[in-house]
Design goal:
Length: about 180
């Protein structure tokens, strides 16, 4: 049996597209378009993935004023986000030039995902510990309790896999340590 190629979505696919464009879930749009319940539950995304359906959905969204540029604009704005200073007493908001790093990273992750990459919030495997870790701390001679606290604290900071790492703080002569500046309270 030779099928004739279609140049437009079927009536059911067209109703499905209209439902999705109106904001319905893909499952609900498939039900409302007349697809069987099992098809609506299991194959709604497969229907949406059909080339004719994708094209029809793009057209329907553009008729509603939802363009690709409009969809991307919040991501673009997020990539340029700056910190806002809010004063609740005066009910004012002041824009700063300080980058809003969490918002920018979130926008970055969305842009990367949209382009088919792996976003930052996917954790890469931890690298294996290699090499030497050196930590310095100034402790007055004779203060063994402080030495012990630093050693214990440093061990807790190391990855669990770093069993071959030796942690050892030692007190150093005060002549080697600069005196901290006193700050008025």
């Amino acid at each position: 049996m030779n099928r004739k190629p279609r140049h437009a979505p079927s009536e059911r696919e067209r109703r499905f597209v209209e439902g999705v464009a109106q904001g319905k879930t893909t499952t609900q749009a498939a039900r409302d378009a007349g697809y069987a319940e099992s098809t609506a539950l299991k194959q709604a995304y497969q229907i949406l993935d059909r080339p004719l359906v994708k094209t029809a959905l793009t057209d329907a969204l553009e008729r509603l004023g939802i363009t690709f540029e409009r969809i991307l604009q919040p991501i673009v704005d997020g990539l340029e986000a700056t910190v806002l200073l809010k004063n609740p007493q005066r009910m004012t908001v002041k824009r700063t030039s300080i980058p809003d790093v969490p918002v920018r990273l979130q926008a970055h992750d969305r842009a990367v995902a949209l382009l088919g990459g792996v976003p930052n919030n996917v954790k890469p495997p931890e690298p294996k510990s290699r090499g030497l870790i050196v930590m310095f701390g100034a402790i007055k001679p004779g203060n063994e309790q402080a030495v012990q606290q630093l050693n214990d604290g440093a061990r807790k900071l190391l990855p669990a896999k770093a069993k071959d790492v030796d942690v050892s703080f030692h007190s150093i002569p005060s002549a080697c340590v600069g005196r901290p500046k006193e700050h008025p309270e």
